[in-house]
Amino acid sequence: MDTVAAEGLLSASWLVIALPLAGAAVLLLGGRRTDRWGHLLGTATIVVAFAVALACTVQLAGLEERAVDVDLFTFISAGQLDVQAGLLVDPLSATFMLLITGVGALIHVYSIGYMAHDPRRRRFFAYLNLFVAAMLLLVLGDNYVALYVGWEGVGLASYLLIAFWHERPAAATAAKKAFVMNRVGDVGLALAIFVMFAQLGTVSYEGVFGGVGALAGGTLTALGLLLLLGACGKSGQFPLQAWLPDAMEGPTPVSALIHAATMVTAGVYLIARSAPIYDLTPTARTVVLAVGAVTLLYGAIVGCAYDDIKKVLAYSTVSQIGYMFLAVGLGPVGYAAAIAHLLTHGFFKAGLFLGAGSVMHAMDDQVDMRRFGGLARKLPVTFVTFGLGYLALIGFPFLSGYWTKDAIIEAALDRGGWSGWLLGAVAVVGAGLTAFYMTRLMIMTFFGRQRWTPGVHPHESPPVMTVPMVLLAIGSVAAGFLLVVVAPLGEWLEPVFGVPEEAEHVVAPAVVGVVVTVVMAVGVLAAWLFVGRREVPEVAPARVSPVVRAARRSLYADAVNESLFMRPGQWLTRALVWVDNRGVDGAVNGLAATLGGSSSRLGRAQTGFVRSYALGMLGGAVIVAGALLAVTAG
């Protein structure tokens, strides 16, 4: 690793974090004085940060070792714990840096138009800046403590943005749900960091990765599982996926930022960054595989049943992140494929969410696809850009998703044995389901009869919103080809993950491509048969099959969480409250009442009359004399 004082722009890579952080500080502390230009400042900080990130990446590519440490200051120094605040600029962190600032900048520009009439627009941009700054710290920090600080910053910013319209009960509830479920995962990450320090005496990436080989197998497995728990919370993976669809209650640009460039990608980054740990623990890596496979299938199934356009896209994200977890769980052969799919997903998922926001902008903020229809002619730019994102997501030949999703499926099949065939089959079925629910969304939104609510007059969004959508659509078309064929991402990431061994293909890549394309076409055809040929009712049918009913209820994920965790927790809390009220408080209050009552009764003997006291003294003297006589006589 190049430990020189990072020459040139690399020595100023901290500006990538500092710029949006400073923007957030100015907008939050400046108050109403910044209302007029706050959105411009918030956007400018991200655009400049992207320019700095791009320049740093170009300079990094010219280095022989392509990894630079940038020391900043001492963060914690207590006893044996010494945590330096520093940045690690390498191909992995640079890749995420470009994604976060690039896509984040487009979302900021889009938000200028989307939030134009919101009286709290300045605060919204401050929270967006804070969100981006926290995510950049997460991926650029050179140790797990820095990652954890960014991790918690992302959680805080997401809470503030999901609850931005907190006057809506659903938004406030969704924010609390996201915050609580993320805290569950955060406990896993915190415990993993404790284990690292206890066993290795360091939390820096260099120190941890250099020492994990000496750890016992059980410790390594525990470390991998704890890190996975943290990743599941942030990335909305099974069993901590229930918060992610509900987070759609926030403004649509927030949804795009969470799903495409920040929060949900953090879990994939954590697993990929911790590759040296997972390479030594097959058990933990197998659990990552299982989580990814279950989640990608779960998200795809549930996405088929929802009528809320944003929730369909949210479950799509759950499923696509599942593909990425599946890939990183495959080990060295899957790391580059996971990051490549993460990048292409950043383009088409951001475009899809911004397109959904454009549809909502035209339809008076409605999200029910049953009240859409016939919007292709009314919203031509939105239709074309959304359509390209849709094709990229379902894996249409030669668009972004085709290249990166197929690479993951090939890597799963190359695992060999029954597990490879099983994982490959799950991934292929997920591709078919993705084609089904996304085609259903396209048909219900842009085609068929107009089912608009009376008084709604759809209109295309202004250029400040459509231009970012066009740029993202271009990425949706070309990014996969560029990352897989023109300039393979795997070669760029070799300094981080090493050179994977050449895998023996169980199935020829060309055959995999044909099979996946056929399955995708079947999914599109099924959507046309079940949805496109029929009249879409404006109200969802009440009588449906048990499978559809279960999918509409998210396969009872919330019910399971409530039954296994929430209700037992409530019962335990109530029992502890009862013990506290009746037991602890009862004993304290009973003792206090006894002493109070006794003192009150004894107080009645104090009459204030001398004759009473004299009589009492006489009586006492008689009793004492009698007692003495009795003792003497005895």
Question: Topology of this structure?
Answer:
Layout: H1 15-30, H2 38-61, E1 68-78, E2 81-89, H3 91-114, H4 121-140, H5 144-162, H6 169-200, H7 205-211, H8 217-235, H9 243-246, H10 252-261, H11 263-273, H12 275-278, H13 282-303, H14 309-329, H15 332-362, H16 380-394, H17 400-414, H18 417-446, H19 463-486, H20 489-492, H21 494-497, H22 509-532, H23 546-552, H24 557-603, H25 610-633
Antiparallel strand pairs: 1-2
Protein name: NADH dehydrogenase subunit L
Domain NADH:quinone oxidoreductase/Mrp antiporter transmembrane: 143-428
Transmembrane segments: 12-29, 41-62, 92-112, 124-141, 187-205, 211-233, 254-272, 284-305, 312-333, 381-400, 420-443, 464-486, 506-531, 613-633
Can you give a write-up of this model?
This protein has 634 residues and is mainly alpha-helical. Among the domains are: 281-552, no CATH class; 561-596 and 609-633, no CATH class. Helix content is 72%, strand content 3%. The protein has 25 helices and 2 strands. It has helices at residues 15-30, 38-61, 91-114, 121-140, 144-162, 169-200, 205-211, 217-235, 243-246, 252-261, 263-273, 275-278, 282-303, 309-329, 332-362, 380-394, 400-414, 417-446, 463-486, 489-492, 494-497, 509-532, 546-552, 557-603, 610-633, and strands at residues 68-78, 81-89. Strands 1-2 form a two-stranded antiparallel sheet. Strand 1 (68-78) and strand 2 (81-89) form a beta hairpin. Helix 2 packs parallel to helix 4 (121-140), helix 6 (169-200) packs antiparallel against helix 8 and helix 15 (332-362) runs antiparallel to helix 16. 50% of the residues are buried. The model is unreliable at 1-6 (pLDDT under 50).
